[in-house]
Amino acid sequence: ARGIEAGVSLTEIRNFDLVQVMARRGKAADMATAAKVRFGVAAPETPTAVGAADATLIWSGPDQFFVLSKGGKHSTEALAQAFASSASLSDQSHARVLISISGDKARAMLAKLSSIDLHPDAFPVGAAAATSIDHTSVTLRRGNDRDGLAVFNLLVFATFAESL
Description:
This protein is an alpha+beta fold. 17% of the residues lie in helices and 40% in strands. It has two domains: 17-91, 2-Layer Sandwich (Alpha-Beta Plaits); 95-159, Probable tRNA modification gtpase trme, domain 1 (Gyrase A, domain 2, 2-Layer Sandwich). It has helices spanning 28-39, 76-79, 106-113, 158-161; strands spanning 9-13, 17-23, 49-51, 55-61, 64-69, 87-91, 96-102, 128-133, 136-146, 149-157. A five-stranded antiparallel beta sheet has the order 1-7-10-9-8. A five-stranded antiparallel beta sheet has the order 3-4-5-2-6, covered by helices on one side. A hairpin with a 2-residue loop joins strand 9 and strand 10 (149-157).
């Protein structure tokens, strides 16, 4: 609306690598060790996101996580050797859209659309959740605040992004 400042900003983030890492049966501990060696941080075991030097590891379910990065350093091919005996890898780079949501009304908007408690005490910076918005499966992650406002990052299947 003209003359009214927007309370929510949606920005599509492009040119990223997204690989899902899923432990093979009985290999969760080996996968966790491989992640620690590769990234220098422990893979998330609960609904959180963990920042490494050049990637973010985002919990996506029990014994699985996404590797979000840029520049091809952590593509499926680059990760194949590190996880060869412990996990299956699935390139999700072109299957998902990454949307950054910010603004002074971002939390209120998302609270109306999802069943996640987005209060800062319940969903602090680094929290992540697999949830749904309008019957669409999404991965919601709380990013670092910007200009004193919460930033949320939403991974959604590309085929649903526009309608969502």
